[in-house]
Amino acid sequence: MFSSNDKISSRQIKRLLIFDLFGAGSLLLPSQLAKSGNGIGIWSILAGMVFAGVYLWLLHTCSSRTATDYMDYLKTGWGNFLARLLYLCYAVISIFTCAWAAKLLSELVCDSLLDGREFVSALFVILLLAFYGASAGMEARARVYELLFWVLIIPLVVMLLLCIRQVQVIQWFPLLGDADTISWSWFFSGTWQCFASFLPLTFLLFLIPHVQDKRSSARAAACAVVYTGLALAVIYLILLGIFGSSALEKEQYPIITLMGMVKIPGDFLKRLDAVMVGGWFFTLYALIGTTLYYGMIIARRALTKWKGGTYSKADRQGKNIWFAVITALIYGIAWIFHLQPQIQLLAVKVFYLAGVPFVVLVPVISLLLCKKEKELYDAE
């Protein structure tokens, strides 16, 4: 029925990426973009999507130069030490992103379903589930989200269609904001945030050993960027048309608030917002699982001579130990983020100022420094 070769199809790549890209962006971006005033946010989303497309082309160009491993490719231009150091930086970004997403999901679950005092337990259960899913491997995770895709997408589409009748289009205008308050710094800031929400695309560089067909996987990733960007734009316009920019920027999770306002004909389901939290649970859980998986894989590759692909009993045991250590580290960071919000704000600022340029510039410089695999064979 299913193969077990640790390879995933282009369709599975597309659905995994949509889950990774959509969850946090749909929760947080609308209120952040509303600060720019009226319709400016829609241009930030579209600009972020365009930059994400350029970034995807850059990643595809890098990944097409090698059929083995991204680190082996980096070694050809950066050398062994610097390649491992770059891998370690990727691992740090992945681990802190996982901690941030785990903290966000735990707080969302506590706010919607539990008491705030249950954060420690919620975080523990979420990371335990993430540990189990990540240790099962890439192929198992891809199968799960392939099956869940339409189960989660269809209810969300139905809910958004029910909301359309409440939209007041006049609140979208002026599309360039109020003339006396417009600030292009808000537009560039929003574009930067939107582009950053597409950065799970970076993990395509480390997906090389798991891809069945590179060419079709690039098309699948491009589709994921377009679908996610359009979905974010539609959600932003719906939220803006219902709340208005002033009220929208004050909402913590406006899309969840909107779900609670939807009235299903017959009124047979109460607390719809609590039910719909399940959709964002799975999308944020997908991001947690992705960042945990790659955080372990990248850190282990950077700090040891392990190259993966042995599938022996000793290798599986070693992998599980690494997963346990990384999961415990993520738990500690997420707990600190919860207890000390100012530390999380500082980490987010460092990510925007240093992390985003890092993941963009490394592939750009690598294209100039590193040789194609064919050129290496010819040199030998």
Keywords:
380 residues, mainly alpha, 13 helices, 0% strand, disordered N terminus
Using only CA atoms, what is the Rg?
21 Å
What is the number of strand segments?
A: 0
**What does the average pLDDT come to?**
86
List unreliable stretches of 5+ residues: 1-5, 376-380
Give the oligomeric state: single chain
Q: Percent helix among the residues?
A: over 70%
Structural shape: globular
Query: Could you give a short account of the major beta sheet?
Result: none
Beta content comes to: under 5%
H and E string: HHHHHHHHHHHHH
What separation lies between the terminal Cα atoms? 42 Å
Helical stretch tally: 13
What class would the helix/strand composition place it in? mainly alpha
What's the topology here?
Layout: H1 10-33, H2 40-63, H3 70-78, H4 80-112, H5 119-135, H6 138-163, H7 184-197, H8 214-248, H9 254-261, H10 272-303, H11 313-339, H12 341-369, H13 373-379
Helix pairs in contact: 1-6, 1-7, 1-8, 1-10, 2-7, 2-8, 2-12, 3-4, 4-5, 4-10, 4-11, 4-12, 5-10, 5-11, 6-10, 9-10, 10-11, 11-12
